[in-house]
Amino acid sequence: MTPIDSSHFAAFYRAINQGRDPFPWQVRLAEHVCAGSWPASLDLPTASGKTSCIDIALFAMAVRGQGPRRIFFVIDRRVVVDQAFEHMRRIAAALIEASDEILKRVAERLIRLGGDEKQ
Questions:
Q1: How many CB atoms lie within 10 A of CB 7?
Q2: 5: alpha, beta or left? (left if phi > 0; alpha if psi -120 to 50)
Q3: What confidence tens digit (pLDDT) does each residue in 19-36 have?
Q4: Roughly what angle, to the nearest 10 degrees, separates helices 9-16 and 24-34?
Q5: What are the residues whose beta carbons fall under 8 Å from the beta carbon of 62, sequence distance 6 or more?
Q6: Is-contact 8 60, C-beta < 8 A?
Q7: How far is CA 34 from CA 14, 65, 66, 93, 103, in A?
Q8: Cα–Cα distance between 6 and 28 in angstroms, integer?
Q9: What's the average model confidence in pLDDT over 70-97?
Q10: How far apart are CA 82 and CA 88, in angstroms?
Q11: What DSSP assignment string belongs to 10-38?
């Protein structure tokens, strides 16, 4: 299995998000999380890309080979919750289809982490 690390996050993000580059704060957070910890909280303005924390959490799980079984995305706006759910569905579909090399590598690592290498 080819190693991946935080330097691969931008490629992963672009593959998941229709070629868009991550914001610098997203890259820094991915580096931080891949190194082993999340900040206590994130206080970011509207439209700053907070939903990408889902991308970061999945990517970091693949990099580290460990992580939580559940990811909680807590926000007090139903429309944002629905958008986050749809974003997660797009990520799942992209990982299942995995045509891009970085997506294949991340998907392989997450499958191994989940304990089902037959899929």
A1: 12
A2: beta
A3: 999 999 999 999 999 999
A4: 120
A5: 4, 105, 106, 109, 110, 113
A6: no
A7: 18, 10, 10, 23, 17
A8: 9
A9: 84
A10: 10
A11: HHHHHHHTTTPPPPHHHHHHHHHHHTT--
Contact 59, 12 (CB under 8 A): yes
Residue recorded with tokens 């997203």: 26
Residue 66, amino acid: Q
> What's the N-to-C CA distance of the chain in angstroms?
16
pLDDT at 7 over 70: yes
Q: Judge residue 66's burial from the number of C-beta atoms within 10 Å of its C-beta, 0-12 exposed, 13-18 middle, 19 or more buried.
A: exposed
Which of 98 and 46 is assigned the larger pLDDT? 98
Instruction: Label residue 34 exposed, middle or buried (CB < 10 Å: 0-12, 13-18, 19+).
Output: buried
Put simply, whether the predicted model's pTM sits higher than 0.90 gets the answer no
| Percent of residues in the chain assigned helix, strand, coil, to nearest 5 | 60, 0, 40
